[in-house]
Amino acid sequence: MSQTNRLSADFAHYSSALNRLSGVEVMHASFYSHRFAPHLHDAWSIGAVVSGIQDNAADAHSNVIQEGQLVVTRPYRPHAGRALGTTPCQYVMLYVSDARLRQQAHSLGLDDINLPANAIPDRPIAQRLIAFVFDLLNCERSGSPADASLNEECGAILDEILLRHGNHANSDDDLYAHRYERRLYNSLQHLQSHWNESVSLDELARRAALSPAHFCRRFSQMYGLPPHRYQLVLRIVNAKRMLHDGEEIGRVALQAGFSDHSHFGRQFKSCFGFSPGQLTRKVADS
User: Fold this and answer.
1) Over residues 89-93, mean pLDDT
2) What stretch(es) of the chain map to CATH 2.60.120.10?
3) pTM, 2 dp
4) Which residues contact 97 (CB under 8 A, 6 or more apart)?
5) Average model confidence (pLDDT) for the chain?
6) Which has the least CB within 10 A, 65, 148, 157, 195?
7) Domain 172-285, what fold?
């Protein structure tokens, strides 16, 4: 593949007209040269690979996903993305609010959502998810409203994922991590509620009743990023929400703590695969 073709293979088609789907957004993307920086979302990320292979791990470990598999990432869990092999990776994503997914889990009789973090082999659901995203984006391109059947299909896909994979058994390591996570939760909550303020490592460590050095190690092990990087990503996530609400890019960049407009744009695109300008144009057109 030539360098030109590799670059042209990178795209992200993001739909902002998805308030019709009650807490769900979608994206269809392809990347080869672009490498997603470690980032997170404030929603459940549920994806399927159309073609190619990707690794979405944010650390030295790997989490390889390929055609016929699903990948699920919990809200506020860092992940990244890079194509493996000699061809681009094309994939689709659903971003589902925690409230929407938990409501559906509750209606199915599930007390909690225990979806595996590693690749989930499930070709029928992967293909169904891909078809749904393509149908929805085609509706948007043609100017047609997303009809009730698409909303019903979205709910049915989420139900199937929860019923097939929502009772994933926790390993002993998972249970140990969960117990330790409760100790760090106050610090994480403080960071999330003060995302655009100067938050000291000492303050976060105090809330977890740990020394700063020990806290930093444990936080990085638990959440995949050191606290200062995690806050940077939180700023970008909240900036995306503000842009989606129609706020102007320059104002959002300042509110998110970026004095340099271009630096904000680079950080934003490295996380999401599309620029702030692309998102604001989508919002304006929706």
Assistant:
1) 95
2) 3-165
3) 0.80
4) 23, 24, 43, 44
5) 85
6) 148
7) Arc Repressor Mutant, subunit A (1.10.10)
Order of strands, sheet of 120-121, starting from the edge strand that comes earlier in the sequence = 11-15, 24-31, 89-96, 44-51, 69-73, 120-121
User: Which stretch of DSSP H or E encloses residue 240?
Assistant: helix 227-244
Q: Please choose, from the candidates 153, 195, 161, the residue with its C-alpha nearest in 3D space to the C-alpha of residue 71.
A: 161
The pLDDT tens digits of the residues spanning 4-42 come to 344 457 888 877 554 556 778 899 999 988 888 888 898
**Residue ranges of the chain assigned to CATH 1.10.10.60:** 172-285
CATH architecture classification, 3-165: Sandwich (2.60)
Give strand ranges (E) for the chain: 11-15, 24-31, 36-39, 44-51, 53-55, 64-66, 69-73, 79-84, 89-96, 120-121
